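Aim 2 progress update. The chain analyzed this quarter is reproduced below.
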Amino acid sequence: MDNNYSHRPRKRISKETARKRQLTALCVIAFIVLMIIILIAKGCSKDSKKSSGSSNSNTNTVTTTTVPVTATVPTITTEAATVETTTVSSAQTGEFKMRKYTYALAVGETDTAWIDEYPDGTTEDDERWSSDNDKIATVDQYGHITGVAPGDCYITVRSASDPTKEAQIKVMVTD
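Predicted structure tokens:
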């Protein structure tokens, strides 16, 4: 038996073409590594958001938009009898930023008020919760609101070290 079949000769390429191919392969590998890093980072950020919430496995996520609260501060000048008003945002006044400012509960139902941002100089240990009408809704030291009877009331969170720093939440309790 004769092995006379021939092999196809290899095509010769220039050094420039070889370098272009190597550079292309390097770019593809760098792109793949970058995509893997991005996917890992996104996966880690999702896990940290889940673990920073409640330890309860049945957690409902509510997405709301926060509208900055503004306060009008009058300024009186002594030279002329004019009154100027300055608008100060909640970031400048250092108030609590809440996830929700309105809660609708049924009698006996409980929900948790979440603080998204604390004023400067305050921490979680510094918060003090109160209800303006315990006959309608109560709140404990952790911000758990419980509906008691039908009606509307306000829950307030204040800083223990600076009582001027506060936020109010409207609670509407139904039957």
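The radius of gyration is 31 Å. Residues 158 and 166 are 4 Å apart (CA to CA). These observations will guide the mutagenesis experiments scheduled for the next reporting period.
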